[in-house]
C-alpha cells in the first residue's frame, strides 16, 4: 500500500507548481495587513506605564473551581458526565467538589482583594442557570447565587469580567440534539445569553461569549479528548465522529451563536448597560521551523488556522464576516456559509479580543514538503506540523508539562499579530500563567514568578509598539481542576491542599501583589 509520505513525494512536481502559484498570489496580493490601522510610533527608550484603568486580575472557570455539582437546582453538565467515564481524566478525578468556590467564594474574593487586583475573570455555569437549556425553567437559585457573587466582587472594588461558557454546557443539550453539531444550539445560547444580560448586565461591564472555542472544537470534535469525545478512528480513540467535517460544523455553530448573543446585547442591552462584549481565544504563537519561505508561510497558516481555530476560524468571520483566505483556499466548498443575517450582525461583532497566551510552537510546512504521518499533516491542520522541538531541542524552556514551553517572545508576537490583523482592536490578556506537575513545590514557586515577570515584560513591549492592551489576568488564583490532567498540574498563586481545601499563598502571590502595587503607584504619579 502506498504510504502517505511516498504519496506526497510522488506528487512533488504538482506541489512545486502549487507552491509557485501560491507564492505569486500571496506576494502580489499581500492582503493580510492591507487594512490595518497604523500603529503609534515606537520609542524603544520609553518606559510604558500601565494606565490607571488597566485591569489586573486572576481568572477561573465554573467547572474548574465551583464544585457543588448538583446543588441548588443545578443539573449535570457535559463535563460532569465526561469525567464520570473511566479513563478520561489522568488521575480519575472530577470537578464535583473542585476547590469548592461555590461555597468559599467570599474567602477567595478576600484573597483577591488582598492581592490588589481590580478585576476577576470567571465563568457562569450554564447548567446552573438553565438546567435543561431552553427546554425548561430558569433556576432562580442559580441566578441568586451569581447575584451574590457579583455583589461580593463589586463590594471589594473588583470588576467582574464574565465568560458565558468556558467549555461546560448543560448535558441536556447534548442528549437532545448533539449540542454544537446542531444549528439549534444557537437558539439555546441566545436564550441563555439574554438571561445573563437581563439579570446581571446592570453590574457586569465585560462579557465574553466563549472561552477558547478553538480548543473546544479541536479537542471535542477533532481529537476527541474533551467532551463530546467525537473523532475519526484514524485520529483518536472515539466511537463516533468525523474529524475532518465536524470541527467545521461545530465551529460554524459557535460563531453563529456568538453573533446572535452579540446582536441581542447590542440591540437590547448595550446602550443602557454600557458594557463591552468579546470572545476569548487560545492563542499559541507559531515560529517557522526554518527560514524557508514554505515554513514561514506554514507559520502564517498555523496562526490563521489556530487563532481563528484550527480548521474552522473564529475571529475573521466575527470581525470581517468571512473565513480567512488560508481556510478558503484549503477547504473550498466544504466551508459552511454564513447567512445574510449572520453577516449583518458580524459587523463589529466584537468590542475586544481576549487572548489566552501561554506557549509557542514551531511550524513546519507540510503543504509543499513531505511530513511524517501524524499530527499536522492533514488539511484540517492547514498542512502544518506544529511541534515544540526542532532537531530535538525545545523552543524556549520546557516546563515538564507536555503542551507547555516558556517562550515570552511569543506573547509579544501574538499581541502584535492580533493588533495588526484585527486593526488595533482592544485586547485583554485573559489568561497567562505557569503550570507545573505535582512536583512537591509548595510555596517557593520561583519558576512561576520568573515566567510571569518575563511574560509581563513581553506584554509591555507590545504596548510600547502600540498594541491596545487593556488588561492582564493570570491563570490562576488557586490550584484547580485542570481538565483532562485532573489535579496533577498546578497553576495557582495559592497552593490548594485537595484534601482539606486549605489555600496557602505561594511566593508568586506576594510577587503579583507587589507588581500591581508598583504599577498603581506609578500611574498615580503619572496623574499627579
Ligand atoms: C486554558 C483554559 C483554562 C486552563 C488553562 C491552564 O487553555 O482556558 O481553563 O485550563 O488553559
Structure commentary:
The protein is of the alpha/beta class. The chain has one domain (55-285, 307-357, 401-526): Glycosidases (TIM Barrel). It is built from 18 helices and 19 strands. The protein has helices spanning 4-10, 12-29, 62-65, 78-83, 101-115, 126-129, 140-155, 171-177, 185-200, 213-222, 246-273, 293-307, 315-320, 325-331, 340-345, 408-421, 446-464, 507-527; strands spanning 55-59, 119-123, 159-165, 206-211, 276-282, 285-288, 352-356, 360-365, 384-387, 389-390, 393-394, 397-398, 405-406, 427-431, 436-437, 469-474, 489-490, 494-496, 503-505. Strands 1-2-3-4-5-7-14-16 form an eight-stranded parallel β-barrel, surrounded by six helices. The radius of gyration is 22 Å and the shape is globular. The model is unreliable at 1-39 and 308-312 (pLDDT under 50). It binds beta-D-fucopyranose. Residues 61, 64, 211-212, 215, 282, 356, 431, 435, 475, 482-483, 491 line the site of beta-D-fucopyranose. Residues 61, 64, 211-212, 215, 282, 356, 431, 435, 475, 482-483, 491 line the site of beta-D-fucopyranose (FCB).
Amino acid at each position: 500500500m502506498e504510504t502517505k509520505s511516498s504519496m506526497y513525494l510522488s506528487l512533488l512536481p504538482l506541489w512545486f507548481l502549487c507552491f509557485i502559484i501560491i507564492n505569486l498570489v500571496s506576494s502580489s496580493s499581500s492582503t493580510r495587513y492591507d487594512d490595518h490601522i497604523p500603529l503609534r510610533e515606537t520609542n524603544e527608550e520609553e518606559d510604558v506605564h500601565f494606565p490607571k484603568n488597566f485591569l489586573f486580575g486572576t481568572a477561573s472557570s465554573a467547572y474548574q473551581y465551583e464544585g457543588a455539582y448538583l446543588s441548588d437546582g443545578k443539573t449535570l453538565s457535559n463535563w460532569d458526565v465526561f469525567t464520570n467515564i473511566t479513563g478520561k481524566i489522568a488521575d480519575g478525578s472530577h470537578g464535583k467538589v473542585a476547590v469548592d468556590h461555590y461555597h468559599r467564594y467570599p474567602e477567595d474574593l478576600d484573597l483577591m482583594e488582598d492581592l490588589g487586583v481590580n478585576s476577576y475573570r470567571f465563568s457562569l455555569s450554564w447548567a446552573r442557570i438553565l438546567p435543561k437549556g431552553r427546554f425548561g425553567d430558569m433556576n432562580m437559585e442559580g441566578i441568586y447565587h451569581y447575584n451574590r457573587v457579583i455583589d461580593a466582587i463589586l463590594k471589594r472594588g473588583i470588576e467582574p469580567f464574565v465568560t458565558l461558557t468556558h467549555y461546560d454546557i448543560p448535558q441536556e443539550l447534548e442528549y437532545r440534539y448533539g449540542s454544537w453539531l446542531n444549528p439549534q444550539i444557537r437558539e439555546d445560547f441566545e436564550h441563555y445569553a439574554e438571561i445573563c444580560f437581563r439579570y446581571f448586565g446592570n453590574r457586569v461591564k465585560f462579557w465574553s461569549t466563549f472561552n477558547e472555542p478553538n480548543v473546544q472544537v479541536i479537542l471535542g470534535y477533532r481529537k476527541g479528548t474533551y467532551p463530546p469525545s467525537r473523532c475519526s478512528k484514524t485520529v483518536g480513540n472515539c466511537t463516533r465522529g468525523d474529524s475532518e467535517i465536524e470541527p467545521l460544523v461545530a465551529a460554524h455553530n459557535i460563531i453563529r451563536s456568538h453573533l446572535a448573543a452579540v446582536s441581542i446585547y447590542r440591540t437590547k442591552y448595550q446602550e443602557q448597560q454600557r458594557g463591552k462584549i468579546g470572545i476569548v481565544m487560545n492563542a499559541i504563537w507559531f515560529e517557522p521551523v526554518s527560514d524557508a519561505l514554505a515554513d514561514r508561510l506554514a507559520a502564517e497558516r498555523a496562526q490563521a488556522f489556530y487563532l481563528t481555530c484550527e480548521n474552522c476560524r473564529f475571529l475573521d468571520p466575527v470581525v470581517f464576516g468571512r473565513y480567512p483566505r488560508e481556510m478558503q483556499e484549503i477547504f473550498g466548498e466544504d466551508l459552511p456559509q454564513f447567512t445574510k443575517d449572520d453577516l449583518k450582525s458580524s459587523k463589529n461583532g466584537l468590542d475586544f479580543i481576549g487572548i489566552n497566551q501561554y506557549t509557542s510552537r514551531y511550524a513546519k510546512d507540510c503543504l509543499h514538503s513531505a511530513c511524517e504521518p501524524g499530527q499536522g499533516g492533514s488539511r484540517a491542520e492547514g498542512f502544518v506540523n506544529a511541534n515544540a522541538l526542532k532537531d530535538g531541542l525545545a523552543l524556549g524552556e520546557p516546563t515538564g508539562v507536555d503542551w507547555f514551553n516558556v517562550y515570552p517572545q511569543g506573547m509579544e508576537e501574538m499581541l502584535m499579530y492580533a493588533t495588526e490583523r484585527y486593526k488595533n482592536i482592544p485586547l485583554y490578556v485573559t489568561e497567562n500563567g505557569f503550570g507545573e506537575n505535582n512536583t512537591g513545590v509548595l510555596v517557593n514557586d520561583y519558576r512561576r514568578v520568573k515566567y510571569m515577570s518575563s511574560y509581563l515584560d513581553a506584554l509591555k513591549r507590545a504596548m510600547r509598539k502600540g498594541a491596545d492592551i487593556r488588561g492582564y489576568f493570570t491563570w490562576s488564583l488557586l490550584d484547580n481542576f485542570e481538565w483532562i490532567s485532573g489535579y496533577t498540574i498546578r497553576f495557582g498563586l495559592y497552593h490548594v491542599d485537595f484534601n482539606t481545601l486549605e489555600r496557602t499563598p505561594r511566593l508568586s502571590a506576594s510577587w503579583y501583589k507587589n507588581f500591581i502595587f508598583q504599577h498603581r503607584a506609578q500611574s498615580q504619579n503619572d496623574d499627579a
